[in-house]
Structure formats: C-alpha cells, structure tokens
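Hello Y.,

Per our agreement to keep a running log of every chain we model this quarter, I'm adding this entry. I've kept the format consistent with earlier entries: sequence first, then predicted structure.
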Amino acid sequence: MALMIVESCTACDACEPVCPNDAISAGNPIYVIDPMKCTECVGAEDEPQCKLVCPANCIEQNPDWVEDKDDLLAKYQQLHG
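Predicted structure for the entry above:
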C-alpha cells in the first residue's frame, strides 16, 4: 500500500526531504503523498522514512492503494530504473 498524510499534519516539512522517491510535496494546507511514487521505502530502506520522522504521527496506509511488497519493489525499480 502507498501511504497517505491525514488531517493532523502540521506541515512541519520533516517528511519531504527523507522520501527516496520524491513522493511527498507541500499541499494546501497539509503535505500530500503521490501514491504513484510511494513505495513505503521498499527498495530503499527497511521502513518508511517519513513515518520515522513525523512528529505528528499523521502518516497512515492509503486504503485506496493496496499493493504487496513485490508490487512496491517493482514500482521502486521502475522509478529508479
């Protein structure tokens, strides 16, 4: 699954620079994660870096983007071909 940022986001900017896929961007008023680019850091890290640095604990699974680890790895490889 891709991740998503929920309304409790404080727009602190901690998540954007740690995303290896450039999937996070500033929205209005909260940050957003592009599900087409989000691999939950599969292929790059052991766990989602954005969730590790988020002080508001506002990053959750996106129920609209169900993907298994193999799908996420394939997406990562396609993005970084």
